[in-house]
Specification:
The complex is a heterodimer.
Chain A: H1 3-16, H2 27-52, H3 56-96, H4 117-132, H5 141-152, H6 156-173, H7 178-186, H8 190-206, H9 210-226, H10 231-246, H11 252-273, H12 281-306, H13 324-327, E1 348-350, E2 356-358, H14 359-365, E3 373-374, E4 381-382, E5 388-389, E6 391-392
Antiparallel strand pairs in A: 1-2, 1-5, 3-4
Helix pairs in contact in A: 2-3, 4-6, 5-6, 6-11, 7-8, 8-9, 8-10, 8-11, 9-10
Chain B: H1 9-15, H2 18-57, H3 62-112, H4 116-138, E1 142-144, E2 149-151, H5 153-161, H6 169-185, H7 189-197, H8 199-205, H9 209-223, H10 227-236, H11 246-264, H12 270-283, H13 294-299, H14 310-313, H15 316-333, H16 340-352, H17 371-381, E3 414-416, E4 421-424, H18 425-437, E5 447-449, E6 456-458, E7 463-464
Antiparallel strand pairs in B: 1-2, 3-4, 3-7, 5-6
Classes of the chains: A mainly alpha, B mainly alpha.
């Protein structure tokens, strides 16, 4: 359970930062109200003064009242001001300070070469082009490309890859799925094709047009559903039909959510079809950074206490466990003897028993090829001549 | 723990300390403004009330006292308007805090539901925030003179993405503007203004920034030969620092007399001058001994005594002034000095980078007689989506360490072909079937083709491997 977030949320944002959370009233707000009340009081006293100013006795009373209300006002202002700043101080101490347990700068030990930062700009361009070309201002592709160039300096060559996708997404969001449906037909994407028609049917029903929805299902979805292999698709359609029969509708929010799912599916398919990376590289690197951060800060904390230094210069001193989709890009072979990753300089070799070792450990075991040795994993004897250089190749 | 192995919610909050550090500081600053405003008006009102009091004592001054009371009401009215503006500021800041808490609550929900798709989408917005931060910090600014609001590509990005509540871009762009003025236009005005507004914080920290900025102002006056103004600047601003920076001030005073000779007599033999220069440095190590840059380096220094003025005239002072300013600025709001995006990228690359990254397999490919096969293999088989191998990211990984692995991560059913390449046997067979199906190759039922060197082997040649 997250304690920090809960304190922030329950204790502060929802109560202590305010005098009254529901009205969003703060101590400073109270001050402003007090100024207002004071003004009203002064106005009232002015009216009195205008009316009864001639009588010396009344004048005296008004004078006293003025002095009193000024004094009261001043002291209550001071009180509210004080409690306002003390609230902030407490907030800062109780909520904000615990967040500063470590400094982001402290883990930035291995710095990126500042001379290479212009590559980062291109990576950012690709990121924006991949995800947000459809948000570019403009009605034609040309206008959108121009906008991306003038705002972010994204070159045409990068944005060009995504402009068709962006246009289709734009159309989808404006409620027109036809181009996307055609695109699916051209690329033989049955599932997405079905999803789009289903989305159309959903929006018809949500607009309270059950008859049109029914006819739409009949012409566009029935043939796919009737194929025996597509039972999976039959279920949502039958749910839709049932809704028509009992006279139920679909809330617009559900349709919107489903639209977003379709957009997501479409962009994925578009990237696959056009051999574009599914995610921007920058996003994947940052994601790995977030996941790795916890280990880096832990290491940094230990390093500080025990005065160990960042040990191996070219390898991290710890393992970062990344999810499978971030760690399966390259085959990694760790030599079982040296416990080191094999490289171009220290490649893997296969023994006659088909166990694999790295070249360095082979040299050590065979004393540079001068003697026979036993495989560290089985009783088979081997010589260096009998080994064979191998390479691991990952297939998609 | 979900499949991403992502950190917990509190850790995310700590990573985003600046999302709360800044508003917390802003709340206090806003309060200061509120309080100062009130105090100054309160003093004024005190006076007005005192006059009113005496006026009321005199029954003949009826009209005047009404007038005075009107004045008071007016003052209070203005006070109310100005205070409610500050109060609106406060509410905006509080709303931001609330939105941010909501943002992390969203993350908490997705994590709790183990909803990987939603989590990835959330992390995408997280990445966008980092990108926005980077762009706002470094973008070149355009100023809308009508509203006096500065903007740049980062702010544009924030607005299109609807991230306004999650990043304090006004603060970041203020730093960017002052820093750009220093570096690009050699303009000290905005910096000096900022220093004046934040002098309390700077003195508390014992910062050198104010002195260095004023010194620079003086040097620039000398550089453009406005000696009168330079002397005035020295007397009014620099003289207070005589006890703290006596050496620097001596040099600064000297420069007034020697500036011309520093510039004029420079040209005779460069080499010996440089040697003298170094000698002088070692004798008087007051500043960083870096070679003098640009204009000054070629013509400063005729004799070793004069060259000690070199560093003062050096244009690199602007750089160091800028660095000093950014350090002070970011520490004021407790923002990290380095760009968070770069920090994440550095850690991310190191967590991902394998020894294989950057060595493209396509270089090892031996072409097949059928170009279609080559094309297919190039784009479908050896093409990797590895983010570190990406042509934009790989150059950034240059000086960064590799990931540390404790276990091999290979594939199922490794088999070795006679040429030494080891593949996943099932995938190799299915690849060969696919190539046949598409009509690219005519392999027999029990044959496979090595996609790298295109040699054909029988499945009976497979040697089962036991990598550990």
């Amino acid at each position: 359970m997250s304690t920090l977030l809960e304190t922030l949320d329950q204790q502060w944002v929802n109560s202590r930062l305010y005098v009254d959370k529901d009205e969003r009233r703060t101590q400073l707000g109270k001050c402003v109200e007090e100024v207002h009340d004071f003004k009203i009081q002064l106005k009232k006293l002015k009216a009195h003064l205008l009316k009864h100013g001639s009588s010396p006795q009344k004048r005296l009373v008004i004078r006293e009242k003025l002095a009193k209300s000024h004094k009261n006002w001043d002291s209550s202002m001071k009180k509210s001001l004080n409690s306002s700043i003390s609230t902030y101080r407490k907030f800062s101490k109780a909520c904000v300070k615990p967040l500063n347990e470590f400094q982001l700068d402290s883990v930035y030990v291995n710095k990126i070469n500042p001379q290479k930062l212009y590559y980062l700009d291109t990576a950012i361009f690709s990121h924006i082009a991949r995800y947000y070309t459809n948000m570019a201002v403009g009605t034609t592709s040309d206008e959108m490309l121009k906008y991306l160039h003038s705002t972010y300096r994204i070159p045409r060559s990068i944005a060009m890859d995504y402009i068709e996708m962006a246009n289709i997404v734009k159309e989808m969001r404006s409620g027109n799925l036809n181009t996307c449906i055609r695109w699916c037909q051209d690329n033989n994407l049955e599932v997405l094709h079905f999803q789009l028609h289903y989305l159309n049917a959903m929006s018809l029903l949500s607009e309270n047009k059950p008859m049109e929805c029914y006819l739409y299902i009949q012409t566009n979805l029935a043939s796919t559903v009737s194929k025996s292999s597509q039972l999976r698709m039959a279920r949502p359609v039958s749910a839709l039909l049932a809704k028509i029969v009992i006279g139920d509708t679909i809330p617009a929010s559900k349709v919107d959510a489903y639209l977003e799912t379709c957009v997501e599916c479409f962009t994925k398919q578009y990237c696959l079809q056009n051999k574009l990376p599914l995610h921007s590289a920058l996003f994947l690197v940052v994601l790995s950074g977030v996941i790795g951060f916890q280990v880096f800060t832990k290491y940094e904390a230990i390093r500080k206490v025990s005065h160990v230094d960042w040990s191996t210069a070219d390898e991290l001193p710890f393992h970062v466990k990344l999810p499978p989709f971030l760690s399966n890009y390259h085959p990694i072979f760790i030599c079982p003897v040296l416990k080191e990753e094999t490289t171009k300089e220290n490649p893997p070799y296969s023994l006659p028993c088909h166990h694999v070792l790295s070249k360095k450990s082979l040299d050590k075991l065979s004393k540079n090829g001068t003697c026979n040795f036993k495989c560290p994993y089985c009783p088979v004897m081997s010589t260096k001549v009998k080994t064979k250089r191998v390479s691991f190749m990952k297939l998609p | 723990m979900t499949s991403l192995n992502e950190p917990n919610v509190d850790f995310h909050l700590k990573l985003n300390q600046q999302q709360f550090n800044i508003p917390s500081e802003l709340l206090k600053r806003n309060w200061d403004k509120f309080n100062n405003l009130y105090t100054s008006y309160s003093v004024e009102l005190q006076g007005q009330f005192a006059t009113l009091n005496t006026l009321l004592e005199d029954p003949n001054k009826d009209e005047q006292s009404i007038e005075k009371l009107n004045d008071i009401i007016n003052t209070v009215n203005i006070l109310q308007k100005r205070l409610s503006q500050l109060h609106d500021n406060e509410l905006t800041i509080l709303e931001r805090i609330e939105k941010r808490v909501e943002y992390f609550k969203q993350f908490e929900r997705f994590k709790y539901d183990s909803n990987t798709d939603k989590l990835l989408k959330w992390y995408r917005s997280y990445t966008d925030l980092l990108i926005a931060d980077y762009l706002v910090r470094h973008g070149s600014n355009s100023i809308d003179h009508k509203n006096k609001i500065a903007s740049n590509s980062g702010i544009e990005f924030i607005k299109t993405r609807g991230l306004e509540d999650l990043i304090d871009y006004e603060v970041l762009i203020e730093a960017n503007q002052i820093s750009m003025e220093l570096i690009e236009n050699k303009n000290l005005r905005p910096l000096l203004e900022w220093i004046e507004n934040n002098s309390a914080h700077l003195t508390e920290k014992g910062s050198h920034l104010q002195f260095q900025a004023l010194l620079q102002e003086y040097i620039e006056l000398v550089r453009c030969s406005d000696y009168k103004a330079a002397i005035r600047c020295f007397q009014t601003h620099l003289a207070h620092f005589a006890n703290i920076y006596p050496k620097e001030l001596k040099l600064a005073a000297g420069i007034l007399a020697f500036f011309k000779s520093c510039l004029n007599n420079g040209r005779d033999d460069e080499v010996t001058n440089e040697q003298k220069l170094f000698h002088a440095y070692f004798r008087k190590q007051m500043y960083r001994p870096h070679p003098l840059s640009s204009i000054s380096s070629s013509n400063v220094v005729h004799n070793a005594e004069l060259c000690r003025y070199g560093p003062l005239l050096d244009h690199e002072r602007w750089e160091s002034l800028n660095k000093m300013f950014l350090h002070e600025f970011y520490s004021l709001y407790k923002i990290s000095y380095h760009d968070p995006l770069l920090i994440y990228i550095s850690l991310g690359i190191s967590s991902l980078k394998t020894k294989d990254c950057g060595h493209t397999i396509s270089a090892q490919l031996i072409p097949h007689e059928n170009p279609e096969v080559n094309e297919y293999i190039k784009s479908n088989v050896v093409n990797t989506d590895c983010p570190v191998c990406n042509h934009d990211i790989f150059p950034l990984s240059e000086n960064l360490p590799f990931a540390h692995h404790i276990q091999s991560s290979l594939f199922e059913n490794p088999v070795m072909l006679p040429n030494g390449n080891i593949y996943d046997s099932e995938k190799l067979i299915s690849l060969s079937r696919k190539l046949n199906k598409m009509g690219y190759t005519k392999l027999k039922e029990n044959q496979v083709m090595d996609p790298i060197d295109k040699s054909i082997y029988a499945t009976t040649d497979f040697i089962k491997m036991y990598p550990t």
